[in-house]
Amino acid sequence: QSKPLHSILDGLNPAQRRAVVSDAATVAILAGPGSGKTHTLTARVVWLVDHVGFRPEDVIVATFTVKAAREMKHRIGRALGNGREKRLILGTFHSIARRYLAAYGRYIGLAQRFGIADDADSRALVERICKRLQLPLDPRAARAWISKKKAKGAEDPSKPASKTASKPARPDPHTGPGLKDLETCYQEYQDHLEKSNLLDYDDLLVRCVELLRKHPSCVSNIQIVLIDEYQDTNGVQYDLMKLLAQRHQRITTVGDPDQSIYGWRSAEIRNLWKMLREFPKTDEIALEENYRSSQSILDFSLQVIQQDQKRYQKKLKPVHNRGSRPVLRRLKSPSTEADWLVSEIRRVHALSGTMLTHNDFAILLRSASLSRHIESSLGKAGIAYRMVGGFKFYDRAEIKTLIDYLRVIQQPENNDALARIINVPRRGIGTGTIKDLLEEAETSKLSLWDVLSKHCRGDRNAKTRITKHAEQSISGGLLRPLEDIRKLIREAAVPDAAPFGLVQMMERLLTKLDFQKHLEKVHAEDHEGRWANVREFVNLAADFVRELDVAEDDALPEIDDLEQTKEVEVLPRFLANVSLAADAQTGDDDQESKPVVTISTIHAAKGLEWPVVFVPAVYNGSIPHARAEDDDEERRLLYVAMTRAQTLLYLSCPLFSANGNGERTELSPFVEPVKGAALNKGPCLDRPVMEEIAKILRRKLPDEDSIYQDLPAMLHLEDNLFPVDPEAARAEAKGGLNRMGGPSDGPPSKRPRLYGPA
Ligand code: ATP
Ligand code: MG
């Protein structure tokens, strides 16, 4: 069945080819954006399975996002055929760790059904602990401290990765009495997770490290481990990588130090050099051609990253033509910025004829909170969009409620989830009562579920302290609603026989809760949209089940000294997928579905590319972010955003910041020194420019007539959507803005009407 050699290696350049077929045990590919690192890694996986003969189930591939994993799996599938890609152990580090823990976690004392506390859960838990114990801590900082602690703790096997906090290695802002509070908070936090049978993101990795140290046979089949976006691995992931590969010590990593943007989550660029030190025979391969972007976009981006004096220098040459100059534009306010950006999307889209669809446009934001104006402008223009990373779908109240129901069904001792849904839809159980019940649970060392059950059974033994208030409210008519919810959960938890049982169960739950009514009652103005979200969530579950045709966890190998768990339950896997995907993606990636503009955080856009990219709000305080600790990392973040663009790149900046108090902004210091290289208006999109774009994208340009047939409509559009902004014009007249852009792009066109707004 194996493909002819040339089809895998087709079109690769010599360095890429060498990387694909290298027979060194450890291979490190270190190269800039768009140089084909991911492309090469994908080809290497195909090569290893098809030509070296590794079984797919013996190959581990770690990607940084769930979306990247899905894309890579898809590409490998096309090359391998026979659905063999489904047998690969391919996913993010977190999902790989989860799979091993689901299959073998009981060997390190994990409960069979553990749940995952996602970032929001962890944050909420820390907040509650700080409040309850009156710890004078910033919950956000405390959460970060705990996370760092866990990430560090696992690095050294001689130090227990446990609650007993040791002195931090680096000077810590929280010393003295603060440190003590942090440790208390950590201890409480960990106790709570353990009691509720929850693992947070860090635990997934740390516990998997523990598992693989104690039971190496779990991975005795693994031939090789390959890692994309290696520059963003942290200490625990480094250990995990080595442990996964412990049998044969074959590791391939690809990465780019200039794109390390997760230092705030303990990622360590040093892991790049650590690997080279620990495996001195590593085959180091550099890729030097950039296949993604036009020359002017690449030059502009390099000018930004080269401001970092300490960076590791690499070569990166464009293979494409010069293309259109990047745009840097200042506008009066965030809302005029959003309107301008949307007008550019419309203009470029219309002028490109059929060459570009809305899928080809992305708006990349430093922080999710910047999306409001853009969403509203897109909405006004009737352009559909999808939100990726940081915001969106899973954060919506109605979806969170449903997820909480599913979590309680999976795991009734999840106190937090149960407390959140106990009165949604309204059952007349007040927050005071919920607090009392939680307190009762905490003091009597029971789960909230057990406390409920106890009350429902009417058994109140002397050991349990119950506040007068709860006592009164429960005897005063709350027994019924408590019983109802218990019954509801118990009935829903009937095991889902067929995989589609999950979807049926969700439907049953929605009916029982009368959820649509509930939304109508609580969200009078937008209940329809919310109900649509709920339907979308059910569809997502159906899609998930459909994709499960090869049961993921079953792909784990037989292990001689451990009996194999055949975990076929769908719900825990769906929930794990939801919590791990919550970072990345809203849902459908269907190629067939209608084209939509992408709004993404820069963090979630890593590794991806789009023909046209907008990076709004490039002002000081947004990027670099006011709260960021490391300016170099912020610069790399901007570099990552800019290097996502293939043919058109737009940076923009409002004169006043988006935070509402009308502060005047300053252009980002990363952009200030290079602004002369940019245009200050939308580029001319005449025929020659369009042809260059088509060449980079290797697409067909529609013939001239059809491109420009929309011209009357375009003119109309320009008249209405590019109003002269008097304030910006005045500011510009004062000389504040007009030196922003460089000279105009080429000689005046004979088609001035095709230019963007001046
Ligand atoms: P990033 O650092 O942003 O993750 P990368 O190095 O992983 O980038 P890829 O995403 O693999 O780069 O490749 C960038 C683009 O270049 C993709 O569209 C890919 O298909 C294309 N590409 C890579 N190698 C070649 C090649 N040899 N010939 C033509 N196109 C290529
Ligand atoms: Mg990549």
TrEMBL record:
Belongs to the helicase family. UvrD subfamily. ATP binds at residues 31-38. GO terms for biological process: recombinational repair. It comes from Staphylotrichum tortipilum. It catalyses: ATP + H2O = ADP + phosphate + H(+); Couples ATP hydrolysis with the unwinding of duplex DNA by translocating in the 3'-5' direction. This is DNA 3'-5' helicase. GO terms for molecular function: 3'-5' DNA helicase activity; ATP binding; DNA binding; hydrolase activity. The chain holds residues 37 to 794 of 1027 of the full protein. Residues 148-181, 733-758 are annotated as: Disordered. Residues 10-294 form the UvrD-like helicase ATP-binding domain. Keywords: ATP-binding, DNA-binding, Helicase, Hydrolase, Isomerase, Nucleotide-binding. One of its GO terms (cellular component) is nucleus. Residues 295-607 form the UvrD-like helicase C-terminal domain. It comes from the Eukaryota. Its EC number is 5.6.2.4.
